[in-house]
Amino acid sequence: MSYFPKEMPRPVPAMNDTEFLRGCAERHLRFQACAACGMLRHPPMPICSHCHSTAEKWVEAPTTAKVYSFTVVHHASHPAVKASLPYVVALLEFPALPGVRLVSNITHVDPSEVRIGMQVDLWWDDIGEDMFLPRFRPMEKIKA
Amino acid sequence: MAENNKACIVGIGQSEFTRWGGIHDRSQFQITAEAISAAIADAGLTVNDVDGFASFSDDENEATLMQVALGVPVLRWSSMVWGGGGGGSIAALSQACAAVESGQAHTVVMYRGLCQGQGQRFGQAGKKRVHGNYILPYGLFAPPQMLALMMQRYMHLYPITHDHLAEVALNARANANRNPRAVMYEKPLTREDYFNGRWIAEPFRLYDCCLETDGACAVVVTTKERARDLKAPLIEVASAIHGSGPGWGTGPLGSHNMPDEDYASTNSRRLAPELFARAGMTPADIDVAQIYDHFSGLVLMALEEYGFCDKGESGAFVAEGSIRWPNGKLPINTSGGQLSEAYVHGVNLLLEGVRQLRGESTSQVKDARTCLVTGGLGVSPTSGTILRRH
Q1: Residue contact B138–A10, C-beta within 8 A
Q2: Model's pTM, two decimal places?
Q3: Are residues A97 and A107 in the same domain?
Q4: Which segments constitute the ChsH2 C-terminal OB-fold domain (chain A) (predicted)?
Q5: Are residues A52 and A72 in the same domain?
Q6: ipTM greater than 0.95, yes or no?
């Protein structure tokens, strides 16, 4: 049972997205990096904005992240989320991986408790058809 | 550039403004053509004088069809600005200015027509977005949610409160209540109403979000030499530019991977000083401003980035009544803006800027001779212009 209903938009593999989504399907959160200079980039792009190398590698992200910003969504801009309101969309940073942030959700917590700077932990949400999406829950909830 | 070639705005035109879906007896293209025709007439010109069109951001009212529909004999310029949503509004003006100032065309009409009842509503999911894979499966669908992330961080970093957001929304409504063209004319909003407004995406409540409307706007741009022969007061485009800092192309409408020093901002940090420098002015020279208000909070950020107050001080600035008409230091969004007049993707703000300098606003700033107008904030490209009456 996924966090959102099955009518939710799913990722559709496109030119630069394939490798990122392959990682998700295997439950590995990986960011793209330049194989020449090491600079991280997200979303995936076909060329390094720093050195213009097209060689790429994939770097495994830590399973813990920090809330950089968030919003509690109360209005359904898509019919699929009506039953999920209110839900939290957060922007997550990984202090060990400068320059990349990830949009995801904070689950397993009352939205009113979410704060910037909060430590969160990755879990893989099974959205069916052999695909998983990275979502996060507060660290303290896991300990408790 | 020779002074005679400097771009001036000589005509403005619009359709009526309604709530989304309010215009159903005519097509979007038709009301856009009506607005363009009104702007040409306002300038005292005919279609024989027009030889260019400029619009922005996936405009569906194709310039080449508009030429045929209106019977423009010769087209020398047609351009549409990439990306940016309403950030393209003043960008399209800057292209129209570039066209006439370089001599590529003589008289260019910049326009926007939007009937959200006939196409896609901006506040709903559906628009195909670059890098949608990184936002849509997580429920980040529409601009209020996307820009809420930036606003939340901004309010975390600086002393900005919901009272300050309310001040922007209430100012817009008070101005709209004096403007018979406004969708929210004769619809007062109290502070209590504001705080009773439902949450859309925290920290934005209902009245922090712009209207979704149907309507069309157009302005006619030509050189100062030609403008001198026309009946309208001479309103010069002192400067008009568009651009973006790094990382904003997939920014708030995508991955949110803008540099940390730019994140909680409108993407105007580099653009604003250049805009003033090109006009030979400073923020102290601005009499009145129309600041792109798709969401109340980004107006606060813009007041800082355009130099009307220091970083983090916009809350205190608006709390002092600085943006209120008629006595504030810098009255803003005097038609009601996009929060309360209409949301024609920023072009209604440009029309109000021209009206202020003509002395025709319903919230007229006494002796206004300069007006700042910004295009969509927090997107790429973003844009701005300074208009000056001689």
Answers
A1: no
A2: 0.97
A3: yes
A4: 58-125
A5: no
A6: yes
